[in-house]
Design goal:
This protein is mainly α. Helices cover 65% and strands 12% of the residues.
């Protein structure tokens, strides 16, 4: 069932990812399934853990505000 849902989601959003490098934020089996589906379609993607991305984003926001 997950494969069917992921396939339908990717088909519906094709104009957003076609010809682009994709960053997936998440962990575990679901990210692995998205990675496999995108790789099957010839799309280059990389996954990042949510905690790391959240902390990186907050740090970037802080640095941006500190420069003002």
């Amino acid at each position: 069932l997950s494969g069917l849902l992921i396939g339908n989601e990717l088909a519906g959003a094709k104009s957003y990812w076609l010809g682009k490098r994709i960053a997936l934020i998440g962990e575990g089996e679901l990210v692995d399934l998205y990675t496999a589906a995108l790789n099957h379609l010839g799309v280059e993607c990389e996954s990042f853990p949510p905690k790391t991305m959240t902390l990186t984003g907050l740090n970037e926001a802080y640095q941006s505000l500190a420069k003002q």
